[in-house]
Structures are given as structure tokens and as C-alpha cells.
Amino acid sequence: MKTLSNFPYEHVLVLGLAKSGTAAAHLLIDSDVKVRVNDFKAEETSESVVGLKSKGAEVILGGHPLTALDGIDLMVKNPGIPYENRLVDEAVDRGIPVVTEVELASYLHEGPLIGVTGSNGKTTTTTLIYDMIQADQKPVSVAGNIGKVSCEVARYTSLEETMVVELSSFQLLGTEAFRPDVAVWLNLYEAHLDYHHTLKNYHDAKAKLIANQTEEDALVYNADDERVMSYVQSAKARRIAFSLEHQGSGAWADEQSIYFQDEAIMKREDIVLVGPQNLQNILAAVAAVKQVGVSNKAIEHVLTTFTGVQHRLEFVTETNGRRFYNDSKATNILATSYALRSFEKPVILLAGGLDRGNDFDGLKEYLSGVKGMVLFGETADKLATTAEEAGITSIVKVETMQEAVDAAYDLSTTEDVILLSPACASWDQYRTFEERGNMFTEAVHKLK
């Protein structure tokens, strides 16, 4: 098990425990760094607090006193804690670097590192890359926003092992020296404005993925996304495009096959995943794994067997001719637009959730195949206005997921698609998008 070496900080404040903070604190203590932990909600008797105290950490609970910063030369914060937090704000004012645990992982991992970001498709692409490398019988690990703490996974990786890391804007904003050997930038859209406040701040956070890359590194990017293109033009890394619109270079596709450069990889008809967004994710994954020498055979094996990631256009069941899909991970307009473009059958759309201050005008053009909408959460009224402007007359507002599924079924007929694709975060009613998706699945199975 590895520890940090040549680490330039001596006294670190870990702000927020949860999984990432606990893992970071243990790593730092094991690396002989003095650690102070501050968490507002944790209990003295919790396993994480007891464990860290037993190893010598100083633990401050129940508030965020500014004295917690005294003597500190680095803050490692939970990615979800906003920069308006009084301790984070004060740390910035004092010139104390504020990072997330992903930064620590970059000090540990010695093998190839593939970093994946984008407004949508991160988890699917990260999983595809991991599966393709594994199918080629090469050592590989996966971490990051996909659910595994990066600095914890990196403690066990070997020199020959590729580490694939899914990276959110929250995680990337807290990086200083992080440098992936292969950066994968899927797309760039409007999201998380409640956290970043402006579109530019959000986009600039994403751009930290490529900030430290050099000519020795590779950048896989979406040549069809103008916002991504505006950032990658000045990148120092070797650039590899993926595209549905431009053929002949990087990873691309025509009606028959997918390609890498001038080499056909496999026929499109043999790919299991549906939808244009998943074809983009596939091309990005192909371009990425080609940078670490993965064979066409391994790529084809994965693409003919991979059925998708839970809560991401996940097929649930068919009931009385209605097909139900769980796309709870669709937390913004772009993700929902991709989902809607994946179906030719009429759709009953279940949508709504946390109000982040944006409107839904960008969704209108994708509602032509929607025959009814069932809306919930803080954005129900906004979405109802959008639906009316799009000419949809069957609109129902509900309070619970079971009510939503029941209402959707009542609006549907045989051969319709009933799709949960909220276009919003879940936090107004649910702790996570996974919980929301699970509630949808349970409600579907309760239908009579």
C-alpha cells in the first residue's frame, strides 16, 4: 500500500468526511502528514471519527470555526462543499491551496492515467474504457466520480496499471498539479450553475482537466462540440478527435461501421447500446483506449455485450406493451435531449427536480415525439410551461414517484415508451439520482 512521497505540505485540514474526506485523511496520516479534520454533521461516535482519532488526527465537529485553519498549509475539501463555505472562503483569502482528493491521487499513481470529464456521459464512457482495457487483459482500475475514491484506489495501483478516473467539475476545480496522460473531454453544456454561479466558471473548471498536459500527453475531444473546441485549440497535448459529423480522423462512424482513423473496428448493427449520445461515448472510449494499445478484438467484445450503466437509459421492463426506461442520471437538458432522441416510439416523459435557476427552452425542440409529460419537484411549473409552448396537451403534476409512474401509465398506450429522464438534479426530493431511479424502478414493478 503506497503513501505520499515528496509531498510539499506538512499540516493539512480535511474539510468534510464522507467517503472522500475519510480516505484522504487516512492517506495523509499514513504519509506522516499532520491532519486536522472538520465536519459539521459527523458524530463523535461515528466509525470514521473514532478511526481517525485513534490514528492521531485532530477532529473538530459541529461547526466550522476559523481557528481550524490555524497552522494549515493545505485544505482538502469534499467536492460538494461550495467555495462560499466560511472555511473555504477564508482559506482562499489566506492563500491556502484548496484541493480535492483527486489531487492526492495524482501524487500516488505512477502508471498511465486516463481522466474523463464532460457534462454528460462520463460514467458510461469511463466504464466502457475500463471494460475495454480489462477485456484486453491489461491491468486497470477505475475511480473518481463513479463511486470509488481516487486517492484510495491509487494506493494499490501498480506501475503497469492504467487508472481510469471519472471527473466532475467539482473535483477538477480543486486541482493544482493533476495531469492525466490521456484526457477525455466529452461535451460541455450548461450545468451546476448553483455551484459555479456562471457558465464561464463551470467551463473553466472543466478545462482544468487539460491545464497541465504537455506534448507527451493525449487529449481525446468532441470535435462536434463548439464549446469544447474553443478550449482545446490552445491545448499542448496531442489531440485526437471523435465525431459523428466529421469522418476520416480520430474515432468516427458512418452508417455501417465505427472506425479509428482509417481502420474499421466493427459494424454498428452489432453494438448493443442505443442512442446517439452513447455512440459518441463509444467513439470517445475507442479513441482513449487506442492510446494505451487496446486491441480491436477487446473493443468489439465489450461493445457487443455492454448493455449500459444503471440509471442511464436503463431498460427496466415491458408491461402491457409499454417499455419503461430509467434515465435518472439525466440531470440536465442535454442528457434528457439525448434520451429523447434515442426513441422512435411515442414517449411519456417523467421530468422535474431541483431548481437551479435555468429555464427549459433548450428542451422544446426535442419534445416533438413526446405525447405526454408527468412533472414533479421544484421545476414542475417551469417544465409545464415549456411543455405547453411545445404543444403538449397531456400534462400532469404529481408529488411522488409512484404517482408519476401511475399517471404515466394512464397517459400511455401500447408500444409507448415511458421514460424517466428528469433534466434536473434530484436533491429537492431525493438524496441521490440513484435513489430517484430506484424509486422509479420500484414503482414500475408495483404497477398492476
From TrEMBL:
<keyword id="KW-0573">Peptidoglycan synthesis</keyword>
<dbReference type="Pfam" id="PF08245">
    <property type="entry name" value="Mur_ligase_M"/>
</dbReference>
<keyword id="KW-0436">Ligase</keyword>
<dbReference type="GO" id="GO:0005524">
    <property type="term" value="F:ATP binding"/>
</dbReference>
<feature type="binding site">
    <location>
        <begin position="118"/>
        <end position="124"/>
    </location>
    <ligand>
        <name>ATP</name>
    </ligand>
</feature>
<protein>
    <recommendedName>
        <fullName>UDP-N-acetylmuramoylalanine--D-glutamate ligase</fullName>
        <ecNumber>6.3.2.9</ecNumber>
    </recommendedName>
</protein>
<keyword id="KW-0131">Cell cycle</keyword>
<feature type="domain" description="Mur ligase C-terminal">
    <location>
        <begin position="311"/>
        <end position="424"/>
    </location>
</feature>
<keyword id="KW-0961">Cell wall biogenesis/degradation</keyword>
<keyword id="KW-0963">Cytoplasm</keyword>
<dbReference type="InterPro" id="IPR036565">
    <property type="entry name" value="Mur-like_cat_sf"/>
</dbReference>
<dbReference type="InterPro" id="IPR036615">
    <property type="entry name" value="Mur_ligase_C_dom_sf"/>
</dbReference>
<keyword id="KW-0132">Cell division</keyword>
<keyword id="KW-0547">Nucleotide-binding</keyword>
<keyword id="KW-0133">Cell shape</keyword>
<dbReference type="InterPro" id="IPR013221">
    <property type="entry name" value="Mur_ligase_cen"/>
</dbReference>
<dbReference type="InterPro" id="IPR005762">
    <property type="entry name" value="MurD"/>
</dbReference>
<dbReference type="InterPro" id="IPR004101">
    <property type="entry name" value="Mur_ligase_C"/>
</dbReference>
<feature type="domain" description="Mur ligase central">
    <location>
        <begin position="116"/>
        <end position="289"/>
    </location>
</feature>
<dbReference type="GO" id="GO:0071555">
    <property type="term" value="P:cell wall organization"/>
</dbReference>
<dbReference type="GO" id="GO:0008764">
    <property type="term" value="F:UDP-N-acetylmuramoylalanine-D-glutamate ligase activity"/>
</dbReference>
<keyword id="KW-0067">ATP-binding</keyword>
<dbReference type="GO" id="GO:0051301">
    <property type="term" value="P:cell division"/>
</dbReference>
<dbReference type="GO" id="GO:0005737">
    <property type="term" value="C:cytoplasm"/>
</dbReference>
<dbReference type="GO" id="GO:0008360">
    <property type="term" value="P:regulation of cell shape"/>
</dbReference>
<dbReference type="GO" id="GO:0009252">
    <property type="term" value="P:peptidoglycan biosynthetic process"/>
</dbReference>
<dbReference type="Pfam" id="PF21799">
    <property type="entry name" value="MurD-like_N"/>
</dbReference>
<dbReference type="Pfam" id="PF02875">
    <property type="entry name" value="Mur_ligase_C"/>
</dbReference>
<comment type="function">
    <text>Cell wall formation. Catalyzes the addition of glutamate to the nucleotide precursor UDP-N-acetylmuramoyl-L-alanine (UMA).</text>
</comment>
<comment type="pathway">
    <text>Cell wall biogenesis; peptidoglycan biosynthesis.</text>
</comment>
<comment type="similarity">
    <text>Belongs to the MurCDEF family.</text>
</comment>
